[in-house]
Amino acid sequence: MNIDRFVMAFAGLVVLVGTALGYAVHPYWLAVPAFVGLNLLQAAFTGFCPLARILKAVGLRPGSAF
User: Fold this and answer.
1) Which of 9-18's residues contact partners 24+ apart within 8 Å by CB, and which partners?
2) Is 47 helix (H, G, I), strand (E, B) or coil?
3) C-alpha count within 13 angstroms, C-beta hemisphere, residue 45
4) pTM for the structure as a whole
5) Which residues contact 50 (CB under 8 A, 6 or more apart)?
6) Regions in the chain scoring below 70 on pLDDT
């Protein structure tokens, strides 16, 4: 698995979990998927993704986006 696929899978998982928690526990949990969405949006324009940098430092091979 390369960095691009891991970032997308992790973002999708966090969005799903945050949405489920917002529905089941408390609406404040909806801030989690909102944060992930904002981070994805800024990464699309700037090319900077904190998770991608961490994964690169750990040794995961880069993909075409990061």
Assistant:
1) 10/51, 11/36, 11/39, 11/40
2) coil
3) 5
4) 0.85
5) 39
6) 66
Tell me the domain boundaries of the chain.
Answer: 3-58
d(CA 10, CA 55): 12
Question: How distant is the alpha carbon of residue 44 from its chain centre?
Answer: 12
DSSP three-state, residue 61: coil
Helices 3-24 and 31-46 pack at an angle, to 10 degrees, of 150
Closest CA to 29 of 39, 38, 20: 20
Handedness of CA 28, 30, 32, 36 (dihedral sign): negative
